[in-house]
Amino acid sequence: MDRTTVAGPPAGHLELAQLHGSLRDPLLDTMTFLNEVTARYPRAISFAPGRPYEDDFDVEEPVRDLAAYVAHLRGEGADEAEIRRTLLQYGPTAGTIREVVARTLAHDGLPVDPDHLVITVGAQEALLITLRALLADDHDVLLVTDPAYVGVTGAARLLDARVHPVAEGPDGPDPHALTTTLRDVRERGLRPRALSVVPDFANPSGTSMSVSARRRLLDLLRPEGVLVVEDNPYRLLGPAPHPPTLKALDRHRQVVHIGSFAKTLFPGARIGYVVADQVVHRPDGTTGTLAHELARLKSMITVNTPPLAQAVVAGALHRRDLRLGPATAGAAQRYASLMTLLRSELTRLFPPADRERLGVSWNDPAGGFFIALTVPFPAGPEALARCAEEFGVLWTPMRYFHADTAGDRVIRLSISCLDRDQVITGAERLAAFVRDEDERS
Amino acid sequence: MDRTTVAGPPAGHLELAQLHGSLRDPLLDTMTFLNEVTARYPRAISFAPGRPYEDDFDVEEPVRDLAAYVAHLRGEGADEAEIRRTLLQYGPTAGTIREVVARTLAHDGLPVDPDHLVITVGAQEALLITLRALLADDHDVLLVTDPAYVGVTGAARLLDARVHPVAEGPDGPDPHALTTTLRDVRERGLRPRALSVVPDFANPSGTSMSVSARRRLLDLLRPEGVLVVEDNPYRLLGPAPHPPTLKALDRHRQVVHIGSFAKTLFPGARIGYVVADQVVHRPDGTTGTLAHELARLKSMITVNTPPLAQAVVAGALHRRDLRLGPATAGAAQRYASLMTLLRSELTRLFPPADRERLGVSWNDPAGGFFIALTVPFPAGPEALARCAEEFGVLWTPMRYFHADTAGDRVIRLSISCLDRDQVITGAERLAAFVRDEDERS
């Protein structure tokens, strides 16, 4: 079609086919699905949402957090004009609370230089700016685990960036698959730039990497010149001691680390961060950091992370003595105990003989929100709708997180928003649905 | 260079030349410059920043705003669980406060359907998602006024989108230049998709469009199938009665309207919005709205606008009776009066004969933050540094906002952060600098 002469529809009418291609990718519905499915079936028990337990939230807390941060600023000698400017005016693009976040990360096992931090609107903006910096053109490839968090593949899609999947095994990205993918990508004349991975209690699979697998991954990628984008929002939500992050093991600046306070404090402030200590060599011979470049990109996305929301989070961190490990131990224990309960209920509901006959299986996360359950039927949106309407239980199709049809018979279950009774009843309803689907086929 | 075999630098070292091209575009430094230049010369009088007057800010206000919103939610029958979920949990992608914003916009002269709104992290995210939706590939062109707000050209650069400038005259985009550009763009086989314009007290030029120019612009673009992206954060910051927005004049859904509470309430919440009532026709024959598509894109950028920040803004709006016109009348009066003062000082400091001899001139905004001053020398960063260091006054080179070297001898002055004495002293210092530069050349 000659786009220059054929008259389109009237000005206020647009063809979806002529808007950006990402809008025709079902990927973009996944985030909305995750955000909103639970509201569509308010009476169902929901294993769907990846959101933290909210019954302990208190609307007075942000007020106390803000007061704590203001008191802290006063204690550091800030006058009232500086304080109101810090909270209410535009602020530095890289963030107002980098020092507070750096000290907290150090206490929780990840020493970082505040200058290597950018405070972002959730981990999502951190992912977006990291991919935008690293993926310069259509020769550049982002490797992602398969299945992958939809936020990383969605951000890449928005940027028209190439994504190649690498199968995830029980210990993280499969080294053989990774080596093969790297070779394939290079043989196609493309440049693998980074691998995105969630090493602790992965969304969506629940997989965690052993420390040796983490070291092996860094060793494998280092000579390839391929960075690791470590997306790690769940690391403190399992039993202590917490394994070292990929970034904590990194001696060669090969890891860009992304985190969030959405699961350790609360999501409503939408505060995330990225640690990017990579050295950037400019054409004039000078050097800077990747964090600096990420902040420059951020200036064209959100200008600043809301300074008021940053202040609330900084106050919350100060009130926890700049240590989230001890502060989240109770929540971590709660999630781990619900995960154990769900696994024991599944074991009870699907005895070994049934498991074998039906082809039902699951993995064994020690914490976090997610567990992957394999079922004997295609677990897509139709199955989900029937399960919600007839059995009163919700979950997420794993296929939403895969590059192809892998995961077609796997569902993601999240225990994060449920109590013990709901886990027990939900597992019973789910088992009834699985048996019913099996009998229908 | 064969990127597949040549070894690059070690993993933790990156070449700027191999990161995204936007990072080599000086455009990206402009936002950082605007954000941070004032901090670099703390003792200079600064006509540089585009930020609102902050001396009236009060750190207790967000606490009162939050309480007002909580009281409002309770009054509507929300229970405590719903309230804490609304403030502290993840929320709907399009926003939690669309109804409150829609009612406020209606009271201030712009009736909109809440379903056509998306609440964003400042106007910047609204610009980014609007451009991402409309600019599908490298055949699509965004037209921008020349000079243009750096946030719109920067967002386009991040998306590798094509931008063509349209000269701005004293009454907004020059109709002749616009017609010529449209023809040129189409002759090159490209598709003009939208024109971005700031119709009230434009950043950077200070220009406002007359009502007849607004109607003419809509009439000119309608048959072309080219949308208007109306970026209008300053409209209430001038003398009442405020002229109708382009969106208020729009009877054909040809305008996407973007606004912000950064200048009418305070920037630190970073709450903006986009009104997009365009009909989107899907391949299956169903229809939706552009607002819905924008929310889908937003889900991959920031997931949600911080619900806590939205709650603060909603409370602030309720405390102002959902009317920003009366609430900002005092601030608008203050800005208008400073603008009048600056113009009269310039008139005093540059008598007509001097003006003619030196080639000094300026325009005449009735409100807003910005005025454009033409000077007889190249007004780039070197001139700015000398002016700051030797004369103690800051401003912004207008060349940062132009597609080419136009604006090389123009500077942007903002009165928004100054008091009357600073405007008077700042104008005197600036005049001394202009005369000194003229004598040196």
From TrEMBL, chains A, B:
Ranges for domain Aminotransferase class I/classII large: 81-430
SUPFAM superfamilies: PLP-dependent transferases
CDD domains per record: AAT_like
Pfam families cross-referenced by the UniProt entry: Aminotran_1_2
Gene Ontology molecular function, alphabetical: transaminase activity
Membrane-spanning parts: none
Cofactor requirement: pyridoxal 5'-phosphate
InterPro entries named among the record's database cross-references: Aminotransferase_I/II_large, Class-I_PLP-dep_aminotransf, PyrdxlP-dep_Trfase, PyrdxlP-dep_Trfase_major, PyrdxlP-dep_Trfase_small
Keywords, comma-separated and alphabetical: Aminotransferase, Pyridoxal phosphate, Transferase
Identification of the protein by name: PLP-dependent aminotransferase family protein
Organism the protein comes from: Paractinoplanes hotanensis
